[in-house]
Prior knowledge:
Blueprint: H1 2-16, H2 24-57, E1 110-117, E2 123-133, E3 140-150, E4 161-166, E5 174-183
Parallel strand pairs: 3-5
Antiparallel strand pairs: 1-2, 1-4, 2-3, 4-5
Amino acid sequence: MAENENTEETTDETVEAPAVPEPVEETAEVEAEAPVEAPAAEAASEPEAAPAAEAEAAPAPEPEPKKKRKRLPRAERPKKTRARRAAPAGERKPIVREAKPESERGRRQERRGVVVSSAMDKTIVVKVDVITSHPKYKKVIRRSVKFHAHDEQNSANVGDVVRIVETRPLSATKHWRLAEIMEVAK
């Protein structure tokens, strides 16, 4: 096998061997014809040489990544113009504030529970039992939560069933107040 490889290499070399320089006589004829073809040949060779020289001097520029636009502060952003409203035909009525209806603000939560402690001054602890169904297993779950509620008159006692209402924070733990005593303890 090694002999075959050597023979192949030699055949490759023999193929390249015919590229021997031409005799001098023929070159003289080419030189005589050269002045006619020289400007065209030079012109053709110059553009080929120029890109090659430029390619060597500066590598091909890679496509630049898209530049991110800087965010402008709101004050410097372009203003959006809005359509102007037509002026009213008649005189404007004066702005009059109407009286607010007598109703409570927002939707305050209400809970009913049993007073567990009334030892603190103006504060009661109310235990509220919550019965819910488990979302996945549908089992009835009973849980209880204790709330501290504000009792201004200290009227509620242990065992009373009371209604408490959510209110603004009165202390670190009190966010409820006593609305009414539903049942008095026996």
